[in-house]
Write a structure and sequence with these properties.
Number of strands of chain A: 14
Shape of chain B: globular
Order of helices and strands of chain B: EEEHHEHEHEEHEHEEHEHH
Number of helices of chain A: 15
CATH topology of the largest domain in chain B: Rossmann fold
Oligomer: heterodimer
Number of domains of chain A: 2
CATH architecture of the largest domain in chain B: 3-Layer(aba) Sandwich
Number of strands of chain B: 11
Structural class of chain A: alpha/beta
Structural class of chain B: alpha/beta
Largest interface: A-B, 78 and 59 residues
Distance between the termini of chain B: 49 Å
Strand order of the largest sheet of chain B: 8-7-9-10-11
Radius of gyration of chain A: 20 Å
Chain lengths: ~375, ~270
């Protein structure tokens, strides 16, 4: 099938499905001027985060996340706001080696104040936005799509409607030469053997089993049984009984394609195929890991409904049941509840999701983009305070 | 120091009259900001409220309860998503047990984003109408000191503030002000005097005016415009500045609306 995609080519071979100007604060105190600048620029995007340069055990993970995020192919340019620390410089250098082509660094010390920093950032944002708007999309191959698979607020229908329908779309994209990435280690616990059995070689299978074991050990280390925290209360109210039941349903987002590889949190896939990335189930932390891993479009299935999106990745929301779709219509792009109601088949909804991914890749705005949703969260492995 | 503050019922007398739009989970932070912008309330982005386990479930819940119970707060609208770990109706029940001036709205039960923004704006306006500004004398100002660096005149400063009648609480962090601000907020400081580390910028905290004191390092000197006072003028000027801020003068951090919240967390997220 001839690719109908049109996208923005990047020098490193990746494709942008968006042409964002990202204002990235590299210190939490610069989140406010970043947000103010993005709002005033009418077009640039920004995130807020709570890292203030702490050099604790999570430092490497945080630097890796922000570096990858800055260089996501959906970014036409990135404006770094800094206080002038060596760690910030490492992020900027790293983003350049990942292929970030256009960036400007605005340092607080050189600007002289938060207000002047904002004014300088706004001038630069306008220049980048003007230039970005002049760039035209060009025909792109199927491999331009790097799809992220996510679910949140699962219910009893997740594993029957939206997740397997997304699996149909994911399988088709992978077959055409695109990349698809499943995340949420929490939500494949108990189903990892099924993914391992689909690995392209035994080594990949061993890695996914080891990754899940490592994850569970890190929770047990805290003296907590993950099976007490999952499924969450919202999941139980939605009709799920055990973590394994939730996992079997969650893994269906990845269809039946062979598993090409396994990625650490925020790591980029380098060849097409289906991957698994080690992320928390926390939807927003997972989205940050996907952004860092250069995913450029996300499909997010939900049984309960969520408004969240990403500053840089279009996020397509699919409801698992029709009542939810009808009760909160401005959160959801597509309804898969029709499968449970016998109105559509899995294949039909899978085809609709596939078509929507293509439309969104070509520029159609998702509900989350229309609403300006840009929630962000850094994933941390260790405690943030000593009490 | 005789200070006219605002009567905030069980929360005490505050030096600001803030309405807090409290997102109980990261998923509702954007909706909360839209509501806050429309009604002129205070809110903040955070990344908590879901995917948390162990001690953190109660710990972060208690942190939000402490913020909502702060004396500078007039009323609170909690905004939840509906399926998160910290259930906003339960959080709101805890808040309501302490302060009647509390409401909550849930995105999954209020017709989505637009429905929740509309319902939230309505609720916030009702709260403002029901709990109008009422002046009251503040019997004792509680000042938090964020010690992010060594301060030669710290003991003299504390003595000076205490002599003026204030209560002083000190918190210390080698890393950043974000942590100490959270602890000082839990201690219900009306006002914070911050001495950020030499490599840390001036910063703020929602709900609490922060007076930033510049050190002699290059970052602070280059960004003198973000600081309310130079450390070299500390003992001579601080009482006048504290008095003015307690009476309503905006600090630079308040004007910049700077300040992200970092809730104390002891376990990894899942």
């Amino acid at each position: 099938m001839q690719s109908p995609l049109k996208a923005y080519p990047r020098a490193n071979g990746a494709w942008g499905l968006r042409n964002h100007v990202l204002i990235l604060p590299l210190h939490s105190a610069l989140s406010a001027p970043a947000r103010k600048t993005a709002d005033a620029s009418r077009g640039a995007v920004s995130i807020s985060h709570d890292w203030s340069g702490e050099k604790d055990s999570d430092l490497a993970r945080i630097l890796f996340t922000l570096t990858g995020y800055a260089a996501n192919p959906n970014n036409y340019a990135t404006i770094f706001l800094t206080i002038g620390s060596p760690e910030e410089q490492a992020i900027i250098d790293g983003a350049q080696s990942l292929g970030l082509e256009r960036f400007t660094t605005i340092s607080l010390a050189q600007s002289g104040s938060m207000e002047k920093l904002h004014q300088e950032a706004l001038t630069v944002a306008h220049e980048y936005l003007d230039a970005a708007r002049k760039v035209e999309r060009v025909p792109a191959p199927w491999s331009a799509i790097v799809l992220g698979l996510e679910c949140g607020g699962s219910d009893a229908l997740s594993g029957i409607t939206a997740n397997p329908a997304l699996g149909v779309a994911s399988d088709r994209l992978v077959e055409l030469g695109a990349t698809s990435v499943l995340g949420e280690t929490t939500e494949i616990l108990g189903a990892e053997h099924l993914l391992a059995a689909r690995a392209i070689d035994p080594e990949v299978g061993k890695r996914i089993v080891a990754m899940v074991a490592r994850y569970e050990a890190s929770i047990n280390y805290e003296g907590i049984d993950i099976r007490g925290a999952q499924p969450s209360r919202g999941n139980i109210e939605g009709g799920l009984s055990t973590l394994e039941e939730k996992s079997l349903g969650a893994a269906k987002k990845a269809g039946n394609a062979p598993l090409t590889g396994v990625l650490e949190f925020g790591e980029r896939p380098t060849t097409p195929g289906l991957y698994f990335m080690d992320t928390p189930g926390h939807d927003i932390e997972q989205l940050a890991g996907f952004g860092a891993g250069h995913i450029n479009v996300v499909v997010f299935t939900s049984g309960r409904g969520t408004p969240t999106g990403s500053a840089i990745m279009p996020t397509i929301k699919v409801s698992t049941n029709t009542p939810m779709y009808q009760s909160i219509p401005d959160l959801i792009d597509l309804d898969a509840g029709t499968i449970a109601d016998g109105i559509e088949t899995l294949a039909e909804v899978g085809a609709r999701i596939f078509d929507e991914i293509v439309h969104v890749a070509n520029g159609k705005l998702t509900r989350a983009e229309q609403g300006g949703h840009h929630e962000f969260a850094l994933s941390r492995m260790y405690k943030t305070v000593v009490r | 120091m005789a200070i006219q503050g605002f009567d905030h019922g069980n929360r005490g007398v505050g030096i600001r009259h803030h309405q807090l739009i409290l997102p109980s989970v990261v998923c509702s932070t954007h909706v909360s900001r839209r509501i806050a912008n429309q009604v002129g309330a205070v809110t903040f982005a955070h990344q908590h409220g879901c995917g948390i386990i162990g001690e953190d479930v109660a710990g972060i819940d208690n942190f939000f309860v402490a913020l909502a119970d702060h004396p500078n707060v007039n009323s609170v609208l909690a905004v939840g998503l509906g399926c998160e770990t910290i259930q906003s109706q339960e959080l709101a029940a805890k808040l309501l047990a302490r302060n009647e001036s509390t409401q909550y709205r849930i995105i999954q039960e209020s017709g989505g984003v637009e429905g929740t923004v509309a319902a939230g704006v309505k609720a916030a306006n009702e709260l403002s109408a029901s709990y109008p500004k009422q002046q009251a004398a503040l019997s004792q100002l509680r000042i938090g000191i964020d010690k992010g660096r060594a301060v030669a005149e710290l003991d003299a400063l504390v003595a000076l503030l205490e002599k003026s009648g204030a209560e002083v609480v000190t918190a210390e962090s080698p890393e950043s002000s974000a942590e100490t601000f959270s602890r000082l907020a839990e201690a219900k400081a009306h006002l914070i005097i911050s001495f950020p580390g030499d490599f840390q910028p001036a910063s703020g905290f929602p709900l609490i005016p922060v007076i930033n004191v510049a050190g002699t390092g290059p970052l602070h000197q280059a960004t003198a415009g973000d600081f309310d006072i130079q450390e070299s003028n500390l003992l001579g000027e601080i009482l006048g500045l504290v008095d003015a801020v307690a009476q309503g003068a905006e600090t630079i951090a308040e004007r910049n609306q700077s300040g992200e919240i970092r809730a104390p967390r002891v376990v990894r997220s899942v």
